[in-house]
Write a sequence for this structure.
């Protein structure tokens, strides 16, 4: 008898195969997401969700952090957990485009440690 993990893995693989077979290897899903991201007839939060979906699949998820310099000069990295809805409500269409560009740039950055003195 199979264990629950093997059954779950087998079901996931079968489901993924069915999705690929029924969506022209996923191209139809891509077209739908692109149509939603480009549409001016849907809510900005829904457009942002489509853009985030595409960016996450193309580039992977990036952790978001904000660096703040306090009056004393100390630097604190603060993890932010803004939801897509909060971002979409706060940004215009042009700002959403800039957000995606910035998100892609941030993903490509590498952290370099300063030498100890």
């Amino acid at each position: 008898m199979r264990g629950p993990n093997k059954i779950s893995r087998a079901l996931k693989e079968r489901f993924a195969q069915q999705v690929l077979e029924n969506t022209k290897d996923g191209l139809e899903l891509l077209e739908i997401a692109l149509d939603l991201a480009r549409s001016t007839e849907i809510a900005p939060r829904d457009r942002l969700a489509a853009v985030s979906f595409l960016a996450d699949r193309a580039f992977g998820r990036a952790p978001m952090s904000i660096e703040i310099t306090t009056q004393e000069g100390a630097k604190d990295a603060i993890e932010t957990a803004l939801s897509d809805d909060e971002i979409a409500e706060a940004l215009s269409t042009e700002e959403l485009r800039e957000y995606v560009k910035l998100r892609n740039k941030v993903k490509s950055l590498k952290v370099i440690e300063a030498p100890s003195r």
